[in-house]
Design goal:
Elements (H helix, E strand, L loop, with lengths): L1 E3 L1 H8 L10 H11 L4 E4 H8 L5 H11 L4 E2 L3 H16 L6 H12 L3 E3 L3 H10 L2 E2 L2
Parallel strand pairs: 1-2, 1-4, 2-3, 4-5
Helix pairs in contact: 5-6, 6-7
Length: 134
């Protein structure tokens, strides 16, 4: 399975600049959808994507678009793994957010690849077994 990060969904669905739709990660997302490959969104990513949307119409449009993706909800083991990832990264001198460590933990625990354009995950990957989709 491939988990999709907020950074990619935001580029694909929230940005008004049409040039962004040709960004490499957006092209990859389009390919995944076109080829009907197994993709999902962590619940926290859905929350992040919908947060800060300016209008009720845009909120509903995004919510409708996200209905096409299954949602993976975090359980206790994901949160425990996220804390471990945060600690390991901190000891390696890498600052990670709570949300990013949870997304990484969900990908690791479900043995999924993560599609992201956030370079923080690249720094985390070598310390936690996170597999990124190129």
């Amino acid at each position: 399975m491939i988990l999709i990060d907020t950074s990619v969904l935001s580029l694909a669905f929230r940005r008004k600049n049409r040039d962004i739709l040709d960004a490499p990660r957006v092209r990859t997302l389009r390919r995944l959808i076109t080829e009907d490959l197994p993709c999902a969104i962590p619940g926290i990513v859905l929350q992040e994507l919908l947060s800060g949307v300016r209008s009720a119409e845009d909120f509903q449009r995004l919510l409708n678009l996200m209905d096409a993706f299954p949602i993976v909800l975090a359980d206790r083991q994901h949160h425990v793994r996220a804390a471990n990832i945060a600690n390991v990264c901190r000891h390696a001198g890498i600052a990670v957010s709570t949300v990013d460590s949870l997304i990484a933990a969900m990908a690791v625990e479900t043995k999924s690849h993560l599609l992201t354009s956030d370079q923080d995950f690249e720094r985390m990957a070598e310390h936690c077994g996170l597999q990124l989709l190129d």
